[in-house]
TrEMBL record:
Domain of life per record: Eukaryota
Keywords: Cytokine, Glycoprotein, Secreted, Signal
Signal peptide coordinates: 1-22
Name used for this protein in its record: Cardiotrophin-like cytokine factor 1
Principal location listed in the UniProt entry: secreted
Pfam families: PRF
Function: In complex with CRLF1, forms a heterodimeric neurotropic cytokine that plays a crucial role during neuronal development. Also stimulates B-cells. Binds to and activates the ILST/gp130 receptor.
Length: 217
């Protein structure tokens, strides 16, 4: 009947249509994605370090685990990169300079932290190992941000092998080094989270590109 004829006509028309372009949306991660990921990683490490620091300071014992313990920073621990820079001076740096400073600092902090991995109880060693892996991920993530923004990695910023940190002359000074290492890590992560939060507001989000692909029947 008429219905069957109309169906046959439509099928014939569709089979003879030329190849039609298909519109596909592809999200390009770009710098914005890398910055967002790095920001979330710094916040995750901040939370992780709170638990780790409490556990490790309890392992060190008094006076290091006392809330009001705030010793002067010794000259020998100046090798641990300090985050105590004037905030106005820090914000006045270029994005490239701040990223390079973060990359160098976490590379060195990771070297010192790896020297702790192997101390204390099995639970503490597990937490230290997990934190080291996460911090290594942050170093690589910062490198990815710098690459996506077209910045070169700073020379000599790669993490040193485990066990290369200088040895303290006695047990108390060794504990003092460990105390300052955790204290500087906390400050660096706090400031880095603010750095990447500001940076992600400056860099546009991921770009969505439209691609036309020929599709035949």
């Amino acid at each position: 009947g008429d219905s069957w004829g109309l169906f046959t006509f439509l099928c014939a028309a569709l089979c003879n249509l030329p190849a039609l372009p298909a519109l596909n949306c592809t999200e390009e991660p770009g710098a914005g994605h890398s910055i967002q990921k790095t920001y979330h990683l710094t916040r995750y490490l901040e939370l992780q370090l709170r638990t780790l620091a409490g556990t490790y300071l309890n392992y060190l014992g008094p006076p290091f685990n006392e809330p009001d313990f705030n010793p002067p920073r010794l000259v020998r621990v100046e090798r641990v990169p300090s985050a105590t820079v004037d905030l106005d001076l820090w914000r006045g740096l270029t994005d490239n300079a701040r990223l390079a400073a973060n990359y160098r600092a976490y590379s060195r902090l990771l070297c010192y932290l790896r020297a702790l991995d192997g101390q204390g109880t099995a639970e503490l060693r597990h937490r230290l190992g997990h934190f080291c892996s996460s911090l290594q991920g942050l170093v690589l993530s910062i490198a990815g941000v710098m690459s996506s923004l077209g910045y070169p990695l700073p020379a000599g910023g790669s993490p040193a092998p485990p066990g290369t940190s200088p040895l303290a002359p006695n047990d108390f000074l060794k504990k003092m080094d460990d105390f300052w290492l955790l204290k500087e890590l906390q400050t660096w992560l706090w400031r880095s989270a603010k750095d990447f939060n500001r940076l992600k507001k400056k860099v546009p989000p991921a770009v969505v590109t439209l691609r036309l692909e020929a599709r035949g029947f």
